Amino acid sequence: MTRPGAVVVVGESIAGLSAARELRARGYDGPLTMIGREPEGAYARPPLSKEVLRSAAAEAALAYPSADLDLHHVRSPAVALDTSARTVTTESGQVAPYDALLVATGATARRLAAPRQRGELVLRTLADARAIRERMDRAASVIVIGAGFLGMEVASAAAARGLDVTVVDTEPPLRRLLGPYLSDRLSAHAAARGVRVRQVARAVGLAGDPVHGVVLPAGDTLTADLVVTCAGDVPEVGWLSGTALAGPAGITIDERCSTSVPDVFAAGDVARLCPRGGGGGRAPFWSSAVAQGKVAAASMLGQDSPLRPTDDYFWTEVLGVSIKVAGPLPLTGAPSSVDGNVQVGDAILRWDRPGQRTTVVAFGRKVPVGRLRALAHASDPISKEKP
Fold it and tell me: Domain FAD/NAD(P)-binding, which positions (predicted)?
């Protein structure tokens, strides 16, 4: 494409902001409009389930600076896209014309509540985190539905406050992504910290109106002062109805973050990568959102980017154990090699798969991100490394 005259970014997310910053860094000095739905503007979301649930003081460090980017901010959600007229319409009635468009609207939390059932709590936004933290201030017991990364982070924050915590899921903690080897260790760690993990045969329902518990598959009910649903997310594509851009799995993009519509790009949690060689899918991690935003910016300008549209790095902290992952997930089977002691939470583990990229996990051990990435790309066993 020729150099765009006007660029519109829908979604004041880390993917959207990364694209805006990359556009300016690559010399684009034209009109740049950023459309977002939250009054706070762009802010870091990973700390919401970690620091913000524990302390209101953590909110002070969330904001992403953007004053240097000369953006025209529209703080009203996008409600319609006209790809023929090349315009985006917002809920407030503003119409933003574009020559190049980036969709970076992210995802919304998947909900379990029945129609008109009140009181379900999820964690996706700063407002969500504030609501949960305020409820934790008054609670003695918490049920978390979902033992994935988000669910275990919420459980960790509740346990750190001294609350009685039960996690409910169809699988043990983090089994879907980290595999049985690390999941078993995390289950034992949770039990030692007094966090109960209740494994059920199938999905649970919410009890009460407002919600005060969960209905288990056998029909019995668990109750608590606070119930938080952490059951995954859904790409935010409702506003794209009628455009043929998106489906239930999100917006399909290629290696350049291009979509099926000319001059429309997508990045972040809303995007589903489908490379020519196969594989791909959604990669709802912060690092991939940053990478895709930068790749999309280069593509808008008709330039190449040295980056891949995925960055397989992720970190979390579960009940005091830091877990950093460099490389593709999910993990299966036992690691190829282990340096350290997994039982005490001080180890580096490596999964080598024939014909695939290596994954390295720092389990409780402090390892700089750059070092972890280097280990994931190294061909020697990690027992020869000096982390």
Answer: 7-293
